[in-house]
Amino acid sequence: MKYTTNPKKLKQMNQHYVEQQLIQQAHPSLTTLSTDEQYIANTLACTTGDMSLFDDLLFSEKAVNTA
Predict the structure, then answer these.
(1) pLDDT (tens digit, 0 to 9) for every residue of the chain, 67 residues total?
(2) Helix 33-48 crosses helix 7-26 at what angle (to 10 degrees)?
(3) CB burial string 4-27: b at 16+ within 10 A, e below
(4) Could you give the CA distance from residue 45 to residue 3 in angstroms, rounded to a whole number?
(5) Cα–Cα distances in Å, from 13 out to 10, 42, 64?
(6) How far from the centroid of its chain's Cα atoms is residue 21's Cα?
(7) The whole model's pTM is what?
(8) Of 12, 8, 65, the residue nearest 42 (C-alpha)
(9) Domain ranges in the chain?
(10) DSSP 8-state code for residue 66
(11) Contact between 58 and 4 (Cβ < 8 Å)
């Protein structure tokens, strides 16, 4: 994934985070740290241009989910 300053893409990423927060509020049993970690990595990637943080998190999350 590459660094983006595309306002539409950033809005989509933010919207996804907001949706995840609403889901977690409605269903507390589904609350996990992974969404917060994903948001943090996404924010860092957008502000620093270093997408490796985001990619590493996605890779590790997929590895955990498939184990």
Answers:
(1) 456 677 788 788 788 787 777 776 766 555 455 666 667 766 766 665 555 555 555 555 444 444 4
(2) 160
(3) eeeeeeeeebeeebeebeeeeeee
(4) 7
(5) 5, 8, 22
(6) 11
(7) 0.33
(8) 12
(9) 28-67
(10) H
(11) no
Contact residues for 1 (Cβ-Cβ < 8 A; gap 6+): 45, 51, 54, 55
Kindly write down the DSSP assignment for every residue of 1-65, as one continuous string: ------HHHHHHHHHHHHHHHHHHHH-GGG--HHHHHHHHHHHHHHHH--THHHHHHHHHHHHHH
Query: What is the Cα–Cα distance from 38 to 55, expressed in whole angstroms?
Result: 10
* Residue (of 39, 48, 36, 41) closest to 4 by Cα position: 48
